[in-house]
Amino acid sequence: MESWVSVPKVELHAHLNGSIRDSTLLELARTLGEKGTIVFSEVEHVIRKNDRSLKEVFKLFDLIHILTTDHSTLTRITKEVVEDFASENVIYLELRTTPKKNDSIEMTKRSYMDAVIKGLRAITAVDVDFGCHDMESKGSTNLQPINDVNNLSPRKKIYVRLLLSIDRRESTASAMETVKLALEMQELGVVGIDLSGNPVIGEWVTFLPALVFAREQGFRITLHCGEVLNPKEVHAMLDFHPERMGHVCFFNEEHWKRLKTYKIPVEICLTSNIMTETISSVDVHHFADLYKEKHPLVLCTDDSGVFSTSLSKEYSLAASSFGIGKEEMLRLAKSAVEFIFSGEEVKRELREIFDSTMKELR
Ligand code: 6MZ
User: Fold this and answer.
1) Which residues does ligand 1 sit against, CB inside 6 Å?
2) What is the value of ipTM here, to two decimals?
3) What is the pTM of this model?
4) Where are the domains of the chain?
5) What's the half-sphere exposure (Cβ side, CA atoms, 13 Å) at 90?
6) Distance from chain centroid for Cα 134
7) Where in the numbering of this chain does the Adenosine deaminase domain appear (predicted)?
C-alpha cells in the first residue's frame, strides 16, 4: 500500500479518548493495577484486542475512562494524541472530547477541559496553533510554515480546534452545561459541538434543546448519525440540518436523497465502520456512491487507538479499495478544508499548503 504519511491531511472526526496509544493505555492500566484499582490481567487482553463489535467498543470506552479521567492523564493523552496526528502530517485537527465531571477527584467539566488545554500548551515537538488569542498558545515563537522550502528542517505546524461532545447518556441539563462551557471556551479554540456516544442509548429530544441553543450561539454542529437502525432519529437529525454528519451507515432511500440534496458533508470512518461491523466490508461502503456523486466527504479515523488505525492508513485504504489515484486523493484531502469549523483565515492558509503540495507532485 502506498504511504500517505507525507501528504498533508485534515482530520475532522477524532475522539480524544479513542485516539490514545495502546502503549500509554497499558502503562496506565499497569499503574492502576499496582494501586489495586483494577486487575491488570483482566484488562490487558481487552486493550490488546483488535476486532470489536459496536457494543464491545462502548464497554472499552468505560474502561478507558477509568484509566484516563484525571487531570494529569488528560494533559498527557492530549499532548500525545496531537503529536501523533502531527507526526503523520495532519495539518488541521478538530479534536473532540466529552467534558466529564468526577466529584471524587474534584473534576468539573471546566477543569477537565483546562487539563486538555494544558496538554495543547505542553506540546513542544511541533508548533500548535489552537486559536487561543494569548501568546502562550502559539507554542514556540519560532513559527515556520510547514513547507518553507528555504528552511532545511522546518518545524511542523498543526492547527488544533476543539469540539465538545455531548454523550447520549447525558440529560438535557448536562448537555446544556456542555454548550455553556463551549461558550466560555470559545477563545480557547472551541469551535463546535458533537453528539456522540452509544447509539442505542438516549433520545434525540433530550439533546435537541442544547443543540438548538448551541446553534443560536453560533456554534457549528456535527452529529453521529445512523450508526444503528433508527430511521425516525435519522429523519429528525436531517430536519435539524447539522453542518456535518458522522458515519451515516443505516440510511434508507429517503435519507440518502435528503442528505444529498442538503449537501451535508459526511465524516467517513472506514476502518471503524468495518471493525464494528456497521458496514460488512469496504467494497460495499457508501463512500463509493457518495464519492461518485461528488458529495462532500472527509476521510477520518474516529478512534485511531481503539481501531489501530491512522489517517494515513485510512487514505491508503480508500485509495486502494476504490482505485483513486494520488492527485485525486490530494484533491479529496484538500476539499475537507471547506468543511472545517474554523474561519476563512485558517482555510486560506490550509488551501495554500495543499496547493504547494499539488505543485510539487506535478
Ligand atoms: C459514537 C463514539 C464513537 O469523548 O471520552 N465515541 N460515539 N460512535 C463511535 N464510533 C465507534 N467513538 C467514540 O472519547 C470517547 C467517547 O467518544 C464517543 C463515546 O462517547 C466515547 O465514550 P472522549 O474523549
Assistant:
1) 15-18, 57, 61, 97-98, 165, 167, 196-197, 224, 227, 272, 276, 302-303
2) 0.99
3) 0.94
4) 4-20+68-130+156-361
5) 30
6) 25
7) 8-353
